[in-house]
Structure formats: structure tokens, C-alpha cells
Fold this protein.
Amino acid sequence: MEPQEKEVQIQEDIDQLCINTIRFLSVDAVQKANSGHPGLPLDAAPLAYILWTKIMKYNPHNPDWFDRDRFVLSAGHGSMLLYSMLHLTGYNVPLEQIRQFRQFGSITPGHPERELTPGVETTTGPLGQGFGNAVGMAIAEAYLAARFNRPGMEIVNHFTYCLVSDGDLMEGVSSEAASLAGHLKLGKLIFMYDCNHITLSASTAISFTDNHRRRFESYNWHVQTVDDGNDLNALYASLRIAREETDRPSIIIIRTHLGYGSPNKQDTFEAHGSPLGEEEVRLTKQNLGWPEDSKFYIPEDARNHFLDSAGRGDLAEREWNSRFRAYKKQYPAEADEIDRLINGELKEGWDSGIPVFPADPKGTATRVASGKVMNAISPYLPGLIGGSADLNPSTHTELKGAGNFGNTDVRGDLQGSAEGGWSYSGKNIFFGVREHAMGSILNGLSVPHGMIPFGATFLTFSDYMRPSMRLASLMKAHVVYVFTHDSIGLGEDGPTHQSVEHLAALRAIPGLTVIRPGDANETAEAWRIAVKARNPVALILSRQNIPVLDRKEFASAGGLTKGAYVLADSSQTKPQLILIATGSEVNLIVEAKKKLTEGNIAVRIVSMPSWELFEDQTQEYKDFVFPPDVDARLSVEAGVTLGWKKYVGDKGDMIGIDHFGASAPGPVVMREFGFTVENVVSRALALI
């Protein structure tokens, strides 16, 4: 639906009928499931009605239309509000699915899930995450518009709307994301704060008494207040004003009443996280003039009104298609890029410039190799955009000459700023020291097809990003995490910065591909995997130099694609011993093999950069790498040993670090904790 350019007449009778339809469709679904949150749909139905029927641009017949407005329900516990709107406006969310709310196999789960329900842009529920997702979507819109729009031909021009609750604003991630959004002046970002003063267990008076207006004004947001969440004219006017504010993100603080209309539970936490109960549902319907005995009732007039409003989406998309055809004629190269983005395709030859690193015993840090690969592929990947949590010099993630994402009024001579100038077409995002926000923003950036957002920090700080990484994995978001300083080998910064348990923690997340390359050429292959992936990928990279293996002597680094591969084998037909390692420890087993071979021991060495990729292989391949009849196996990894038993077996051994590190030069720490060739040889000999 195209936004109206003139004042929309509020027709009280039909409007109120539609609002109550939203309310009681939601309440009935929660009551039937005997589970859910009825309070938010009851209080926010007027806002949803105005937004979806009079403001937003969308097409229910093509939920993935490239230039649609985005809507994020950060308060994901109120999911029935969103499902009701999707059903009523014509998305493929049948009434039977509304009846199956929160049931196994339905497309209406307890909290909205991307890729499951048509029209759901992002997976929300953990409070505050949707806030950051919406900021990421607004960054994507600003970037794509600056990159592709031309005078008189706006191919990218949409808004991001986000409904947030008290809980969203209490979570720290929202503060980080709001601060960055205000700094970036994201004028097409509009938040609606459902300010009902009630949380799941109490009133906000006991824990949350911020001055919300001043808080967001300090973030450089445009702030409005609507005193009555049922005032349709005020809601409509505030949304129109927010759309016209182009230099700042907007938030509308809307005073609502949780569980509106419920005679006994309005404005109480009892309406938040539990069904109203059959009798209270009846009383609420009676109070608001709804048929008391009806269930899942949709008046014909209301249904037609919703579908008439949403029907304008077909026209809006047809008009956009017409503009895009004209755009293609005038700007064919740019149009080809857009087509590839929409279809999730990569430009032919995108990886042809990835460097091949020559053998070098002194080596290079895999973080440095990663930076060289990123800069080789960036010109061919318009969707590759991202940055670090104030760590570009350490993570080597600056895309040189690609420009910096931000306002053109940012001074170009700022100390520490990257080269290339400032504009919304820049590919380097300066997230600041905001890992929480960076993680959730990356998920929002991944929503437009073809985008490949990346975020970088030290591996130990992946703890700050775990909630967003878990959600990225749940929704199969194409996000790349660049985690450097990957072990106790980073040295003097000590145990606060030395990753020990983090590899195991990341490997525990279903759907996240974790890759810890063993040298520069494995790093190049890891980036090939990351770019082509259709799920989140975490690259785990070293601070210290690692020898670059001579691939004439060792197997091709292309073996990384299988997760684990035989790096070098014994000259005998069957190995007596298998040494396994990842990352910087691969060189330890390379050197240990030389020593053991001198003693006529048949040694196979296996580089195992990714457990997840290996588990995707056939059993035949797995048995080839790890023959079942070879019991003498030793794993070497500078992290906790949790999980390695699966690969070394009951008779194997593990060299790891099941305690925190220490502050000292990296080589000293590694030596003191047993990561030496001598210790590998000694432990290996004990196995045979």
C-alpha cells in the first residue's frame, strides 16, 4: 500500500469495528492456546490498524517485494497482534493457522520467526533484539538507496517501523542501538513505544522510571508523545510527522493501557503473560460491544476494509516494477547488481582475485590474511558491508577505499577514521564499542536479499553477541562474524581477553558454522565458504603469526570445505597415530609429525577447521579421515577440550586448556600450558 499524501479521513464506525476485530482475533487465539500474551494486542490494536491500513507500503501477495516498508515487532511476546494483521490484510496466514497459535507445526509460533511466517521480517522475542534489527534494516535502506538511486529514479525508498515495549527499552542492547542510530541520523527509522507501564511481573514504577523523552532526545532522536493510544487522529498525525522528519530517527511514545477493555485485568500484569480466562474474555467482549459467544469472528465489513487497504500493494509494486524497467534501460550495470541482490546471486568471478599465499615459515596472522581476502572480494560484492566494535586496526576488517557509512557532514579528518570519505554509500560501518548492538544490527542488515553483513571483535567478546548470534542461527541469517585474538596465544592482555571456552560455546549453537583456519590459505577458503553460505558463519582468527604451509608438500587448503581433511599422511598404508588440530595449533602437529616420523611411527595429521562442515560429510568420508580401527588419536587446540572426545574416541587424548590463561608474552603462555612440539610428541607416544 502506498502512503497517502493527503489527510486520511478517520471513519469511526468502520475503524472501531476493524480495531476490535484485531483485538478479539488475537484474544481468542491466545485463549484457545491457553498460552500467550493478550495484553499487548488489546492495547496496541489501534496503532497497528492505523499503521497497516493508512501508512505502510507492502504487498501481501509478494511479502519479499524489494522496496516494501519493514515492520518489526520487537515486543515479540505480542505476536498475535502481528499474526492478526497478516491474516486480515491478505498474507498467506490462513485462519486455521490463527486457530493453531503456539501449536506444533503451525506457522504461528509463540514469538515471530523469520522464514516461517509470510510477512515476518525478523525473529523476535528476546527483548531488545528487534530494536537493533530495525536499526540494521534502516542502515540497509540508507546504504542501498545511496548506492543505487539516481536523480528522478528512486529504486530504494522505504521506511522501517518498529513497535517496542517497556522491556525492550530496559534491555541494554536498545541503548547501544539507539545511540548509534541517532548518530547516523537514520531518518527513515520510526519507532512506536507501547508505553503501558506494565511488565510481566509488576508495574514499571518499581524498576523503570526513566524520562523517556529526554533519553531519546539525548540520542538525537525526534520524539513525539501521544497521550491516548485509542486516539486514531493523534496516532495518524504522529506517524505522518515522523515520516517527514528526515534528519533523525523518530520515536512516538504512546500511552496505552495493557489489556485494554478487560474489566478486571486492564493495567495489571495479569494481562501480560497469561490468557485472560474464558469468563474475562466474555466480559471484555461485552465491555467493548463484541458478540460475547463469538470466537475467531471477523465481520464481513471489517474483512473487506482490511483487504481494500492492503490491495493497494499490488499497484505500488507494479509502479515500482515500471520504474525499475526504466532504470534498467538507463543504468544497466546498477540494475544487474540489484537483480543479483534480489536473487541472492554472486557476480561471476567474484573470488578470482582472492590471493594465494606463498609458503612462508615465518608466516602471517590469519587476521591479517583475512583482511587481504576481504579487500580482494569487496569490489565484487555490493552486499558486503560491516565493520568492527572499534577494533579495525586489530581485526584488519577495514575495506580500503570503500568509503565510510555515515553522514556527509562527518569530518573527513577525524583521527582514526578510515579512508574514502563519509556517505550512506560507504561500506565501512563504525559500530563503536557496542558489540551487543552490532550483533543485532547485523541481523537486520541481512534482511534484504544479497546483503552479506560482517561484524568483527575479539573472540572473547563474542559473549556480548551471543543472543543475536543465536537468533541469526535460528533464522538462517547470512551474517559473517570475524573473531580475532582467538586463544591464550594473544599474550599479555591476560585471561580477561584470552579465549578459552568460546570455541566450544559457539560450536554449541545449532546452525552456526564455526571455522578456525590453520594458515593464510585456509583463511582464504574460509571466506569462500562464508560468502556462499546461507547461514551465519564465524571465522576464528589468530593474533599471532602462523606459518603458511607449502601446499606442494601438504594437501590443498581446499580441503577446508569438508571441515576436516588429511593434511599429510604416513608413507605406510595405514597410520598408527592420528594428530588433529585447528588454527595456530596445526603447525604444532606438523612439527610433531616430523619428530615422530624419525622414530618410524606412521603418523597422519588432520587439519580440522570446522566441526560443522565435517558433520555435513558422508560417513564414508568421515571414516576415511578417521579410520575406525585407528584408536591412537590426539587432538590439539588452545581451548577447552569439551566436545573433542567425539573425534579422539575413548582411547584417544586431548591437549587443551580447561582453565583460564595468564598474562605473559604469547609464546610463553603457550609453552607454559603445554602447547609445544615436545609435549605433543610425548602425549602422542603415550598413546602407542
